[in-house]
Amino acid sequence: MDASMEKPLSLKKLADQVIVITGASSGIGLATARMAAARGARLVLAARNEHALKILANEVNYPPLINLTV
Length: 70
Known about the structure:
Blueprint: E1 18-22, H1 27-38, E2 42-47, H2 50-59, E3 68-69
Parallel strand pairs: 1-2, 2-3
GO cellular component, one term: membrane
GO molecular function: oxidoreductase activity
Family: Belongs to the short-chain dehydrogenases/reductases (SDR) family.
C-alpha cells in the first residue's frame, strides 16, 4: 500500500477506553492508574498486594467489580 494513502493514526480519548494495568499497587503502575482514572478511563487493576490495591481503588473512587490479586 502506498504510504500516502494510509489514514493518519487516531487515538481514542482515555475516557472511552478500558485499560488493564498490572503492578497497579506501586511504582509506575500506581502512577499510571491514578493518571488514567483522573482522565476518566475504565480500569482493570491487577497487583500482588491486595491491601494496596484496595486502597488505590478507594483513592480513585473506583470500586472494582472484580478484585484481581496475583
